[in-house]
User: Which sequence fits this backbone?
C-alpha cells in the first residue's frame, strides 16, 4: 500500500529546547494515550517544524542542510514569485528557479516544503485522534491548536501546489493536493482531492478550532507563539476572502475588530516590530525562534532576513553578515514615494548614502529587456540629474536625450518617456515607456546593472542581524481583509475608511486619506490592493492577492527572470509536486 513520502518521521516528542524526532510509525495511539504529556509535546513539536532545519532523506540528523527551513522556503516560494522583489543575479540557492517560474521538482525548496507541510498535517491528525474533548481546558486548547495547524498545513499545500480557488470555480477538473483528515485517511492510496472540498474542510477545521479556543484561557498556552482563538478567526477570514465569500469574511473581521488592541488602530512602532513581533499588539500569531536554536546559531545566513539585508554594509545589528540578494522592486518603491511621511517605508527601506557629488541630485533607472532567450532584464542607470521647472527630468542614454514626464496614475506620479526610440522594456503602451526617478544613492552591484535597496522587515530580533519571529497573522491583515470584502460588497465608504486606518497609523497626513478624495483612482478595489501591496510587502501575500483577484502579475522589471506578465490562469501557479512524492505515491503531477 502506497504511503505519501511525507510521513516517514511525522510525530515529535519534545526532549529539550531542541526537538528529538521520533518516527510516527513507532508511536501508536495507545502509547500517546498512556503518556499524558505526549500531545503537549507533539503539539509543541509542530510549532518547531516551522522554524527548524530537519534532516531529509539520508542527511545526518546532526548536520542537516541548514538552508532547509520551512518558513524560509515558504516566504521565498510566495514573495519571490510576485512583483515586489528583484534579485541580484544568478545564484546556487534554489530560490532562483521559482523566482523565474521554472521550479525543479527535485530541488530542496520544493521537496522540503511539501515534506514538512504534510508532517505538520500528520502530527496534528495524531494529536486530534488521542485528545478527548471536554477532558480539561488544556486538552481542549490543544485540540483547538491542532485543528488550526491541520487547517494551516492544508491551506499552505493547496495554495502552493494547486491552482487558486477562483480558477477551480471555472475549472472544476483542476487537481487539488492530497488531503488527510483523521488517521483513517492514511489507510488507502493517496489521491489528489478536489480543490473546493479541501477549502471547505479547511473552513470546518478553523470553525472547530474556534469552538475549542474561544474563551479558553490556559496560562501555559498564552502568548503570540501559540495559536489562540483570534488566530483561528484571522486565518478563517483570509480563507473566506480567497473563496470569495465576502460577507462571511466581513462578519469574521467585524467580530475581530470589536476587541482589537488600541495600538492596532492608533499605530505601532514599525521599526521595532521585526525585533519583537512576539510581544507586540499588532501580532496575532508568530513563529518564535530562539537564538540558541541550532539553525540560528550555526546558519544565521540562511534565515529569511539574510536574503534581504547584509549587515556588513550597514552594521545596524550584531554584524552577522547576510547575503543581501533580494531587493525592493522599483514599482513598489514608487508606491511608497507618493508620501515621504510613510513610516513603513522609512522603517524597512535602506539605501547607502549618496556619493558626495550626487547629494541633491536625481538618477533615472529603467529596465532594459535583453535579447537572450530568457529575456532577463538589466538596468539602464543615469546619474547626476536635476528636475526641470515643470517637474520633468531630462537624461541622456546611448547618445540620445530623453524626457521623463511626470504623469498622475492612480493617485501617484509615474514618469513616462514618450519616444518610440527609447529602449526601456517596461512599456505602458506602444509609445509611453516607464522610468523611475530616484534620489541618487550611487549604490551598484553586478557590474552596474542593479541598484541595491535593502529591506529590514525580518531583522533585528534580540539584536541579531538575521533573526525575527515571522508574524503569520497580524491585525493589519484583518483590517485590509475587511476593506477588501467591503469593496467587493460595494460598501465603498466603509472600505475606504478601513484603508485610512492603515494609512493613518503609518503616519500619512490628512490629505493622503481616501475617505474624502480618491486621488485619481477610479476603483475602490484598486485602492485596497495597492494598500495591501505596501502593508504586506515581503510577507508572502502579494502573490496570492494578484492571482485570486483574476489579475496578471506584471514581471516587467529588472531582475534575472523572464520579462513579461504571468496570467492568473497560467498552470505554473501550481508548483510542481516533488518527484519523490510522484515516485512514491504515483499521484499525478501538475501540468506544464
Assistant:
Amino acid at each position: 500500500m502506497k504511503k505519501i513520502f511525507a510521513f516517514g518521521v511525522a510525530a515529535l516528542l519534545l526532549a529539550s529546547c531542541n526537538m528529538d524526532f521520533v518516527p510516527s510509525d513507532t508511536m501508536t495511539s495507545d502509547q500517546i494515550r498512556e503518556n499524558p504529556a505526549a500531545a503537549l509535546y507533539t503539539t509543541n513539536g509542530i510549532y518547531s517544524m516551522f522554524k527548524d532545519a530537519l534532516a531529509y532523506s539520508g542527511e545526518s540528523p546532526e548536520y542537516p542542510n541548514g538552508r532547509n527551513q520551512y518558513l524560509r522556503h515558504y516566504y521565498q516560494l510566495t514573495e519571490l514569485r510576485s512583483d515586489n522583489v528583484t534579485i541580484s543575479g544568478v545564484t546556487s540557492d534554489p530560490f532562483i528557479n521559482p523566482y523565474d517560474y521554472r521550479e525543479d521538482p527535485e530541488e530542496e525548496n520544493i521537496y522540503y516544503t511539501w515534506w514538512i507541510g504534510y508532517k505538520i498535517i500528520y502530527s496534528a491528525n495524531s494529536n486530534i485522534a488521542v485528545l478527548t474533548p471536554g477532558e480539561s481546558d488544556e486538552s481542549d486548547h490543544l485540540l483547538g491548536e491542532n485543528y488550526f495547524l491541520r487547517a494551516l498545513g492544508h491551506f499552505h499545500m493547496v495554495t502552493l501546489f494547486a491552482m487558486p480557488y477562483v480558477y477551480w470555480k471555472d475549472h472544476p477538473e483542476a487537481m487539488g493536493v492530497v488531503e488527510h483528515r483523521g488517521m483513517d485517511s492514511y489507510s488507502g492510496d493517496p489521491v489528489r482531492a478536489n480543490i473546493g472540498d479541501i477549502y471547505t474542510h479547511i473552513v470546518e477545521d478553523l470553525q472547530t478550532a474556534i469552538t475549542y479556543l474561544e474563551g479558553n484561557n490556559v496560562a501555559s498556552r498564552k502568548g503570540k507563539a501559540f495559536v489562540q482563538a483570534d488566530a483561528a478567526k484571522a486565518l478563517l477570514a483570509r480563507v473566506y476572502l480567497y473563496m470569495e465569500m465576502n460577507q462571511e469574511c466581513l462578519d469574521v473581521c467585524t467580530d475581530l475588530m470589536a476587541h482589537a488592541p488600541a495600538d492596532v488602530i492608533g499605530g505601532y512602532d514599525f521599526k521595532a516590530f521585526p525585533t519583537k513581533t512576539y510581544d507586540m499588539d499588532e501580532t496575532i500569531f508568530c513563529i518564535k525562534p530562539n537564538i540558541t536554536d541550532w539553525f540560528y546559531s550555526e546558519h544565521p545566513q540562511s534565515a529569511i532576513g539574510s536574503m534581504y539585508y547584509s549587515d556588513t554594509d550597514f552594521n545596524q545589528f550584531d554584524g552577522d553578515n547576510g547575503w543581501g540578494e533580494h531587493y525592493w522592486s522599483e514599482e513598489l518603491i514608487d508606491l511608497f514615494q507618493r508620501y515621504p511621511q510613510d513610516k513603513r517605508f522609512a522603517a524597512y527601506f535602506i539605501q547607502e548614502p549618496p556619493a558626495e557629488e550626487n547629494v541633491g541630485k536625481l538618477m533615472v533607472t529603467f529596465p532594459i529587456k535583453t535579447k537572450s532567450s530568457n529575456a532577463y532584464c538589466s538596468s539602464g542607470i543615469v546619474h547626476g540629474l536635476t528636475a526641470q521647472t515643470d517637474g520633468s527630468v531630462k537624461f541622456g542614454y546611448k547618445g540620445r536625450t530623453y524626457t521623463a514626464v511626470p504623469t498622475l496614475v492612480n493617485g501617484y506620479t509615474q514618469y513616462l518617456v514618450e519616444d518610440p526610440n527609447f529602449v526601456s522594456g517596461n512599456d505602458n503602451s506602444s509609445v509611453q515607456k516607464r522610468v523611475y526617478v530616484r534620489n541618487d544613492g550611487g549604490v551598484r552591484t553586478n557590474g552596474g546593472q542593479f541598484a541595491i535597496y535593502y529591506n529590514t522587515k525580518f531583522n533585528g530580533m534580540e539584536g541579531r542581524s538575521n533573526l525575527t519571529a515571522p508574524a503569520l497573522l497580524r491585525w493589519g491583515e484583518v483590517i485590509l481583509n475587511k476593506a477588501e470584502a467591503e469593496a467587493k460588497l460595494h460598501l465603498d465608504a466603509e472600505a475606504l475608511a478601513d484603508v485610512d486606518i492603515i494609512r493613518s497609523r503609518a503616519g500619512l497626513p490628512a490629505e493622503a486619506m481616501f475617505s474624502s478624495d480618491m486621488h485619481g483612482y477610479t476603483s475602490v478595489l484598486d485602492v485596497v490592493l495597492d494598500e495591501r501591496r505596501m502593508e504586506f510587502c515581503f510577507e508572502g501575500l502579494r502573490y496570492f492577492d494578484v492571482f485570486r483577484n483574476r489579475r496578471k502579475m506584471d514581471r516587467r522589471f529588472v531582475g534575472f527572470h523572464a520579462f513579461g506578465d504571468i496570467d492568473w490562469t497560467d498552470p505554473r501557479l501550481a508548483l510542481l509536486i516533488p518527484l519523490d512524492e510522484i515516485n512514491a505515491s504515483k499521484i499525478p503531477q501538475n501540468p506544464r
Observations:
- Confidence is low (pLDDT under 50) at residues 5-27.
- DSSP finds 20 helices and 18 strands in the chain.
- Residues 484 and 528 are 6 Å apart (CA to CA).
- Residues 356-439 form one domain.
